[in-house]
Write a structure and sequence with these properties.
By secondary structure, the chain is of the alpha/beta class. It has 4 domains: 197 residues, P-loop containing nucleotide triphosphate hydrolases (Rossmann fold), CATH 3.40.50; 192 residues, 3-Layer(aba) Sandwich (Rossmann fold); 106 residues, Winged helix-like DNA-binding domain superfamily/Winged helix DNA-binding domain (Arc Repressor Mutant, subunit A); 84 residues, HRDC domain (DNA polymerase, domain 1), CATH 1.10.150.80. Helix content is 46%, strand content 13%. It is built from 29 helices and 17 strands. Strands 3-4-2-5-6-1-7 form a 7-stranded parallel sheet, sandwiched between helices. The chain has a 6-stranded parallel sheet with strand order 8-13-12-9-11-10, with helices on both faces. The longest helix has 23 residues.
Length: 637
């Protein structure tokens, strides 16, 4: 494989050189990317975001989990002379992030409520003396007088605010106290601020920008697509048995099972254990020491599956989670997207499976209506309706997710249950024209139920008051049921022809046409829709797209075994040593020298120095045994 590595290196170098010549200020960042983190090239969007930060601009970065969001602020942090503050609500994630940075030879630490006063003082002393490059903090820690007294003694060059959707009232995890972070710009006027999140629609993005008072910020909104994740919905009929069968079929791979109650968490964990699956429960009712033990065991590959409420997952930095199963419906598309995003962070194939029945939505809706009326409840209701429509969709699941976040696409993904086992189709152009015309002629000011009411010719007082019973479109859909038209409208929303806009508080949502509708209304294109309504959804197994299959599987198994031994000895999670993706690349190219090893993505100078030799020794030994016609795995056993 030496020649392949050499060719690969030659293919990369011109790109790096060209980028550095055209943008001299990015050359240091490229060097950090390669020598510290061990990656050959920037991923899409990273370079422009990093360049904006290095030029002193504020920025808002919306980038899907697994697309290298952390590097967007970690690389500038190493390029700036002073200290970078990283503000994150994920206290449980801070130590993992710091451990990963330390493994790459980067001076980093954290301050939060889990530390004693003595430990916190030690960290502060390191920051004041200039020993640290990155300091992770919780928002609560930042908004204290003692923090400002301490930080005034530090040379702060840059500020990153992670999980920035928590700042917005439109975000799925809104925390009112986080809006106080808007005062940071006034306290650090010369330090660029970068806000980052994996999930934010246009309304949420505007709210983040306003709340943080960012100065002419650079806005980067990357693709929300995670093509390595297959989205599947399974209709519940014997849910516990279905779930256990699915997990058992994963054959020891790491996964997370989410459900909405502590009692279900306990029951499912026990059911999986009875099937011989290494599983543990995790929820807010457990002692913090118990939760920490479960999380650590999962991160270190000592537990295969964690069954959890939404209390688990936001603090997980584990790159080799191969599946996420939802036993219950999430409360919003943002929450579902964020939770499924825990799978496949290493870009390798992963599964996101939702077990669903309409009663799940009805229960969540009932719980929501028991809350006092408020603007926040209206927002929650809109988001719950959206995830309900996702679950009942007859359109490519990925299209539903992408169009919800404003990434208008119409091409199916061929990697979800709808694409792999498609519903029956019909010529839906006329139905679409009826709906789009009704939305347009009623002024694009009303929601789904009202539009359907006009189409079906209902004798409704509000329709009469608005004189919409005099429109040509009044009654054009009376031959079809309300459920039929609901299904078609949902499909048009999912396909990006119609948008649901949240009206003023208390006014619900309204339907609005997008630019994509013009050729449909004019009859210039054909339009296939799914025949309403889908009666059953089945689990489909098909080859994962983009899966790497030509690496040496036996060598990969040996490298994973070695990684686990090293991780246990170093007392760190295995993925901090090297990710599965890095081990697969080693198994494919089989590097046998330092130069070749440093061309493997994820192998930086410090990691090579710390871990490289034993991995290279296994590769050499493996090649020798293969040459001698022996089975390399016999040594391991």
């Amino acid at each position: 494989m030496t020649a392949e590595l050499s060719n690969r290196s030659e293919a990369i170098k011109p790109e790096l050189i060209k980028s550095a010549v055209e943008n001299p200020e990015i050359s240091t960042a490229l060097d950090v990317l390669h020598s510290v983190f061990g990656y050959q090239t920037f991923r899409k969007g990273q370079q422009e975001v990093i360049q904006a930060a290095l030029s002193g601009r504020d920025s808002l970065v919306v980038m899907a989990t697994g697309n290298g969001k952390s590097l967007c602020y970690q690389i500038p942090a190493l390029c700036f002379a002073g200290l970078t503050l990283v503000i994150s609500p994920l206290i449980s994630l801070m130590k993992d992030q710091v451990d990963q940075l330390l493994a790459n030879g980067i001076a980093a630490d954290f301050l939060n409520s889990t530390q004693s006063l003595e430990q916190q003082q030690q960290v502060q002393n390191k920051a004041i003396s200039g020993e640290l490059k990155l300091l992770y903090l919780s928002p609560e820690k930042v908004m204290t007088n003692s923090f400002f007294q301490f930080i005034s003694l530090c040379n702060v060059s840059f500020i990153a605010i992670d999980e920035a959707h928590c700042i917005s009232q439109w975000g799925h995890d809104f925390r009112p106290e986080y809006t106080q972070l808007g005062g940071l710009k006034g306290c650090f006027p010369h330090a660029p601020i970068m806000a980052l999140t994996a999930t934010a629609d246009s309304t949420t993005r505007q709210d983040i920008l306003q709340n943080l008072s960012l100065n002419e910020p650079h806005l980067y909104v990357g693709s929300f697509d995670r093509p390595n994740i297959r989205y599947t919905l399974v209709e519940k009929f014997k849910p516990m048995e279905q779930l256990c069968n699915f997990v058992a079929a994963q054959k020891g791979k790491s996964g997370i099972v989410y459900c909405n109650s502590r009692s279900k968490v306990e029951r499912i964990a026990e059911a999986l254990k009875k099937r011989g699956i290494s599983a543990a429960a995790y929820h807010a009712g457990m002692e913090s020491s118990q939760r920490e033990a479960v999380q650590q065991a999962f991160q270190r590959d000592n537990i295969q599956v964690v069954v959890a409420t939404i209390a688990f997952g936001m603090g997980i930095n584990k790159s080799n989670v191969r599946f996420v199963a939802h036993f219950d419906l999430s409360r919003s598309i943002e929450a579902y997207y964020q939770e499924t995003g825990r799978a496949g962070r290493d870009d390798l194939p992963a599964e996101a499976v939702l077990f669903y029945e309409p009663a799940d939505y009805a229960w969540l809706h009932k719980i929501l209506l028991e809350e006092p009326e408020s603007p926040q409840r209206d927002i929650k209701r809109h988001k719950l309706e959206a995830i309900g429509e996702f679950a009942e969709s007859q359109t490519c699941r990925r299209l539903v997710l992408l169009n919800y976040f404003g990434e208008n696409r119409q091409t199916p993904c061929n990697n979800c249950d709808i694409c792999l086992d498609p519903p029956k189709k019909y010529d839906g152009l006329l139905d679409a024209q009826k709906i789009l015309s009704t939305i347009y002629r009623t002024g694009q000011r009303f929601g789904t139920q009202y539009v359907i009411g006009v189409m079906r010719g209902l004798q409704n007082q509000k329709i009469k008051e608005n004189q919409h019973d005099e429109l040509k479109v009044y009654g054009i859909g009376k031959d079809k049921s309300k459920e039929y038209w609901q299904s078609v409208i949902r499909q048009l929303i999912h396909l990006g022809f119609v948008q649901q806009i949240i009206s003023d508080f208390g006014m619900g949502t309204r339907l609005q046409l997008t630019e994509s509708t013009r050729p449909v209304l004019r009859g210039e294109v054909s339009l296939e829709l799914a025949t309403p309504r889908l009666s059953s959804i089945t689990m489909v197994q098909a080859p994962q797209r983009n899966a790497v299959t030509n690496y040496d599987k036996d060598l990969f198994a040996r490298l994973r075994f070695l990684r686990k031994q090293i991780a246990d000895k170093e007392n760190i999670p295995p993925y901090i040593v090297f990710s599965d993706a890095t081990l697969q690349e080693m198994s494919l190219y089989q590097p046998t020298s330092k130069v070749e090893m440093l061309q493997i993505n994820g192998v930086g100078a410090i990691k090579w120095q710390r871990f490289g030799q034993p991995f290279m020794a296994i590769i050499k030994e493996h090649q020798a045994l293969r040459k001698a016609g022996k089975n390399p795995l016999e040594l391991q056993s």
